[in-house]
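User: I'm writing a short report section on ligand binding and want a predicted complex to refer to. Could you take this sequence and zinc ion and write out the structure as tokens? A short remark afterwards would be nice.
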Amino acid sequence: MSDFCVECGRDADRLFNGSCAECYLKGKKFVSAPLVIDVIVCVHCGARQHKKSWVAPDQPLIPVIHDAVISSLEISKELETPTFEFSEEYEDEKNLNVEVTVRGLVAGFEVEEVHALRARIQRSVCGRCSREQGGYFEAILQLRARERDVSPEELERAGKLVHEELAAMRSSGAENAFVSDYQEIHGGADYYLGDKDAGKQLAHMLMQKFGGEANVATKLMGQKEGKDAYRITYLVRIPAYKWCDFIKWGDEYYRIASLSKEFAAITDLRTHIKKQRRHRDLDNAKVVGGAGMILEAVILGQTPKEVQIMHPKSFKTMDVLKPEGYSNEGETVQIVVIEDAVYLVP
Ligand SMILES: [Zn+2]
Ligand SMILES: [Zn+2]
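Assistant: Sure. The structure tokens for the complex follow:
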């Protein structure tokens, strides 16, 4: 059935308060926007204050402002599936003029509205960053090595891994996954962590990467909001040997081929046969040295069983037995000399 629009008099299948859709939609607003919004942004991480909490840290400012604009709009329930398009221009450092175009459907008809507002940017410090800067911590992660100092390379690698892991934890919602203090101390490093669960996860991760063992110690520090407050210390002790080190274990010499949480893969220097051993079985292994021991020797000749080389220090000619399956087409070979014996480096 058809009827007349009270405004334009045309036939219409469907009336809204007596008007056809076109007349009804004309001049009617479905979105209201404030003239000015205040966007409070953390100077350190870029989080935005929303009511009493802080949202979406580590983001560029413009999308943060877009979010703030969207949440400042009052959108009529009649407007369905709204989409937003922005253009903006800085008036000065603290003021951004934003134009937002809202499109959607009202009773099946497309509508479009443009609103202009000013975003005033205020800089502040969010709760997480003030805790981080204030040295707040729940756990200490200690990295140490058996019978030696943690090397500068290991400290650097551990630091990189720790910060990558913490960034991943933060992006999945653990806002206190930060290092509030760091000290290189007692031949290793201490990380002061804002989140005790992060401490556990990082201890596990470091063991995976470096091998070794972890201990946890809990100390009652007093009361916080009526509950017992504990300080948790995770101690990760990595093995005396590092990846690529040469070790003496029993009467044989080996090179560390790889490390995991529980195991080391070790390559016999004489046979080049690789085997897996638990770290605790290698407790009495002695580290002979690292990659710095490797020398380059000129190959003088080869037989199926031996390589004839010139000793790089004494310049004497010597024959070294080849491990089974060994081949070297080059003119030089890497060797390591331990207690006057020469080994081909696996
Ligand atoms: Zn009409
Ligand atoms: Zn922050």
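A remark for your report: Helices lie at 21-25, 61-72, 127-133, 152-171, 196-210. Residues 5, 7-8, 10, 19-20, 22-23 surround zinc ion (ligand 1) (CB under 6 Å).
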